[in-house]
Amino acid sequence: MGKKINLTIDGKKIQAMEGDKILWAALENDIYIPHLCAMKEQQQSPFAGCRLCFIEIEGKPRPVAACTEPALEGMVVNTRSESIDRLVEAGFNLIMSNHHIDCKNCAASGACELQKIAKERKIRLKPKKLVQLDMNLPKDHSKDCIIYDPNKCVLCGRCVTACRTEGTAVLGLAYRGFERMVTTFGDIPLGETECSGCGSCANVCPAGALIQTNK
Ligand code: SF4
Ligand code: SF4
Ligand code: FES
How far, rounded to the nearest angstrom, does the alpha carbon of residue 133 sit from its chain's CA centroid? Predict the structure, then answer.
């Protein structure tokens, strides 16, 4: 078992287990850091794809990702500054430029991590300066208990990990660039795969792209 260490985040003195990622130490102490791709169970091998969890650590020349940075004794961490806020806003705008925003009709509304980030950081959900790209891809209703809407996917990769560890490993990230998306192997509808309908993917989706319909 690791040892407890002391660190300071945004002026608040907290304790964490040595080596735990700063993201989880902060969240456990009610200090919010935006995050989409990280899952605590994966903290030893974070994917670090969303680039929203930037923080500054005193003594380090550049911002780092809180989901990959281990907590160490005596660290002094800041989650907010002009440059951090700019980085997070730019990253969030880019993600949202590709997201079909329809909160009024979205089953995730209220429990949505995108809404939370926008609220916490006072960022508009709909980016002002970027052109909104609507791919208008068809939804997958082929599985009776899960709906997949690729137009809402923010490519965080959580569902792929969850499906691999708790489900039947039918989901994967495919293609490159603007065409990158979560799909099934062979790009076939979910209902035609070995999907067990366990709902692990929907449980971790932060953006209403995978919704379980029979909870
Ligand atoms: S996923 Fe969130 S931001 Fe997107 S439409 Fe649903 S509630 Fe709105
Ligand atoms: S479907 Fe949801 S969990 Fe999966 S990558 Fe897209 S946003 Fe993330
Ligand atoms: S949560 Fe750290 S990069 Fe996504």
Answer: 20
How far is residue 81's CA from residue 189's CA, in Å, rounded to a whole number? 44
DSSP type of residue 70: B
- Cα 102 to chain center, whole Å? 19
Q: What is the pLDDT of residues 96-146, one digit of tens each?
A: 998 999 999 999 999 999 999 999 999 999 888 777 777 889 999 999 999
For residue 114, what are its two tokens?
Answer: 């995108």
Torsion of CA 118, 104, 152, 81, to 10 degrees: 0
The protein residue with its alpha carbon nearest to ligand 3, atom 1, reads: 35
Closest protein CA for atom 2 of ligand 2: 205
The answer on pLDDT for 199 being more than 90 is yes
**Ordered alpha helix ranges (H), the chain:** 22-28, 82-96, 113-121, 158-166, 200-204
